[in-house]
Design brief:
The structure is a homotrimer of 148-residue chains. With 148 residues, chain A is α/β, with parallel strands linked by helices. The first copy, chain A, has five helices and five strands.
């Protein structure tokens, strides 16, 4: 009888251990999506990166399978200026936003370029602590890093 | 006596726990090699990246210590075309393949460039879901990312 | 009484398990700093990367919050030559070193450029196994990767 009770206790503790063990990873994969942070700094890479992101969404099987944040800083941000942006960029950004992609621009870059926050294309989020800080932050939260 | 039996049971459970704990990491390092995915998209980076990979193999102590996949997409893929490739690229790709390096090219890029699958240098694998999808996939399997 | 003793043993083992479980992650975060490896290979990215690192330190809340290593290889290393370096690079490197940033240069690149080890700016560490080997090594130790 004592053995039986103790076995139950041991089983209970083992289960608790397993729950603690796998709790963290379960939480990370809570939404069953792969988290990816894309990074762009060069002006002439902007069109390419937008194509890459569209290909990634299609390659992985649709927007419900992936969570993408594009963090832009440096010269690349110019291409997202609401007046400067060419139609192709404007359209692709909108199309990707409809598929759940988040666009962020570096606050330091905006200051350096003399851009106001409302001068970027609609829906852009400002990375207040800076683009690189944000990219490192997302990676430490488990985001995979892609720098086309 | 009861105490002795229970101690044995507890020891057994502890060992089981430790095995469960370290099972995953043991599996990841099953072949004792560091897994690295290299990424190249610019044409003029191809020669540099091939040199980097050779240096990496030598720096880490030989091909038995490292497992490298080079995923190419965008303009870089042109340099791996079997007719266009210069001798230096052709020779270095072959030399790295002999050391176990895997070369993959983005299926979307092949379509965009109008290349057939058999027009690349011998041994190239096609990343069917696209280059960026493949790079993210490898990273989520534990590959370290290098983008020279 | 037996039950009580066994409960104490079980509690002890559970605590030991928890300590083992979280020991590794505790060790990794021993200094409470985020570890980041920056990577630069292009000459014309050097000034930009130095700015990025300064912004990162400020964005995260100061040098006590972050541990940064910049690994340079390829043409970028020329900009760190003690005679060739422009004042802006020289000053920014010194300023970042005062904030704890480590600068490393690829040994293979030094050989390729015909640079002696003591020809780089003061405080540079030589990555003896090569720049890419070092970057992968740091990543496998838990460093986040940034390639501006």
């Amino acid at each position: 009888m004592i053995n039986q009770k103790l076995r139950n206790t041991l089983l209970g503790l083992s289960l608790l251990g397993l729950i603690l063990l796998f709790g963290a990873s379960a939480a990370m994969a809570a939404d069953d999506k792969l988290d990816v942070v894309y990074h762009v700094s060069e002006e002439d890479k902007v069109g390419f990166v937008l194509n890459n992101i569209q290909n990634h969404i299609e390659g992985i099987g649709g927007p419900e399978k992936i969570n993408i944040v594009l963090v832009s800083h440096g010269p690349a941000v110019k291409r997202f200026h609401d007046i400067e942006a060419v139609n192709k960029v404007r359209e692709n950004v909108a199309k990707l936003q409809e598929q759940g992609v988040t666009f962020e621009a570096c606050a330091n870059t905006l200051t350096a370029l003399g851009f106001e926050r409302d001068e970027l294309l609609s829906g852009f989020v400002i990375a207040e602590k800076g683009g690189v800080t944000r990219i490192a932050e997302l990676q430490s939260e488990g985001y995979v890093y892609l720098r086309p």
